[in-house]
Amino acid sequence: MLENSILEKNKFGINEIMSEDFIDPFSFDTMFIPLVGVDINGCRLGYGGGYFDRALEGISLLNKRPLIIGMGFDY
User: Fold this and answer.
1) Which one of 4, 29, 53, 57 has the fewest CB atoms closer than 10 angstroms to its CB?
2) Nearest to 16 by CA among 32, 38, 1, 36
């Protein structure tokens, strides 16, 4: 987390850091990505306007990809 950062509620009511600073998502070995569910092809279904999908759209082109783990609630 960024030092001296302040969490603010986004349009979905979720606290997040409102800053222009970010960490390159392709620098991680493992990533935990939230999801609502998966479709029949194993594609992630989310609830956030496609942020993760846009942020990670070039990941399939990398030689060394991070392990991506989807995290969701068991209903």
Assistant:
1) 4
2) 1
Question: Within its chain, how far is the Cα of 43 from the centroid?
Answer: 14
* Tokens linked to 15: 């606290």
pTM > 0.90: no
Neighbouring C-beta atoms of residue 31, cutoff 10 Å = 17
Both structure tokens of 16: 């997040």
Tokens encoding 65: 């990809």
Report the SS3 class of residue 75: coil
Alpha-carbon separation of residue 45 from 33, 42, 49, 61 (angstroms): 11, 9, 10, 22
CA angle 5, 11, 14 (to 5 degrees): 55
Instruction: Tell me the residue length of the chain.
Output: 75
Strand 15-17 and strand 7-9: pairing?
Answer: antiparallel
